[in-house]
Design goal:
single chain; 342 residues; alpha+beta; 4-stranded antiparallel β-sheet; two-stranded antiparallel ribbon; 51% helix
């Protein structure tokens, strides 16, 4: 894919996810009777703007985010003010952005499954030279049906059993026969975390739910929930030092991955966009000032102390959160540059 196409696809992907997120805030604000002053995709100087009704809709220069500006965010105690909402109503407006990201991810994952999403199986397509799998006697075409006596019918069931230390006793179907192969994986670091190398590459098969929308919706919901849990676990491992901060990526890494998944097909691209949407939703719910999660925390504090927090206190917290967020963005871009430089 050319650089121009990669940039265009990345901008459309990120812009679409930001639009979905801000649309959630916008609709819930309107539903709660709040006057919305501005709906912006991007930050900074406006590139394009149009006024419809009481709201200005604009596209701004810096495309790394967006915002919905509501009347009353500065504490105005007037009709149709955000400040006049009850804490629970504020939370509904704040959580709607992430909620719409999760809803969109579910829809995108469902469509990917219906289009035919390549997914790894328990069958082996390739065994790498000099690997533990090769020395143990595994061969391309073998199908793993059990690990240490525990039956497996899918990669989803197989992977957690492989991601553990110690000898594995594989029950293998080869042609018309069955047998057992014992493999001792080699511990290895992957992204700063401990992993276990076998050297066997699974066969990917198209998981098609065409004509089965209800089954695709159910599987899509499960995959969305699994991805959200995986992202939370990854964030925790970064916070505790189990995964190095160098694994954080910025716009360049997103662009590279977007281009790669687009070349793999529409279904793979849809699944990746769903994953990006889940990342955006989870990240925005973190209890960090300036993010939605930080403002949800303020609303919860309002419930506890039975009065709104001072506008000054929220402004100071937001400034601190913005500094931290900008530092994270700079660090992510630094990692991107280091990857490009090899």
């Amino acid at each position: 894919m050319t650089l121009t196409k990669t940039i265009a696809l990345t901008v459309l992907t990120l812009g679409g996810l930001i639009f979905v997120h801000e649309l959630g805030h916008f609709l819930l604000a309107r539903l709660n009777g709040v006057k919305v002053l501005r709906f912006s995709i991007g930050f900074g100087p406006k590139l394009f703007a149009i006024v419809r009704g009481e709201t200005e809709y604009c596209i701004s220069l810096v495309p790394l985010g967006g915002y919905v500006q509501m009347f009353g965010e500065n504490g105005e105690q007037e009709p149709r003010s955000y400040a006049m909402l009850s804490p629970l109503r504020k939370i509904s407006v704040l959580a709607a952005g992430a909620g719409f990201n999760f809803l969109f991810a579910w829809i995108a994952m469902t469509l990917a499954l219906m289009a035919g999403l390549p997914m790894p199986t328990t069958s082996i397509g390739k065994v790498k030279d000099g690997s533990p799998a090769l020395h143990a006697g595994l061969r391309p075409g073998d199908t793993i049906v059990a690990v240490n006596g525990q039956p497996v019918n899918s990669w989803k069931e197989l992977y957690p059993l492989l991601d553990q230390p110690g000898m594995k006793r594989f029950t293998v179907r080869r042609g018309d026969g069955m047998g057992e192969v014992s493999v001792q994986p080699v511990p290895a670091e992957k992204g700063g975390a401990m992993a276990y190398y076998y050297g066997a590459v699974p066969v990917s098969e198209i998981a098609s739910y065409a004509g089965r929308p209800l089954a695709a919706m159910e599987e899509g919901a499960g995959k969305t929930a699994e991805a959200a849990a995986m992202i939370l676990m990854s964030l925790w491992e970064m916070a505790t030092g189990k995964v190095p901060a160098d694994s954080i990526g910025g716009p360049v890494l997103i662009a590279q991955t977007t281009a790669k998944t687009a070349e793999a097909g529409a279904a793979t691209l849809l699944a990746f966009v769903a994953l990006l949407g889940i990342n955006l939703g989870v990240f925005n719910l973190l209890p960090v000032p300036v993010l939605d999660g930080g403002h949800i925390f303020f609303a919860l504090c309002e419930i506890l102390v039975r009065r709104p927090l001072s506008v000054r206190a929220i402004e100071l917290a937001n400034k601190a959160g913005m500094v931290a967020l900008l530092a994270l963005m700079v660090f992510a871009m630094r990692n991107d540059l280091m990857r490009l430089m090899g």
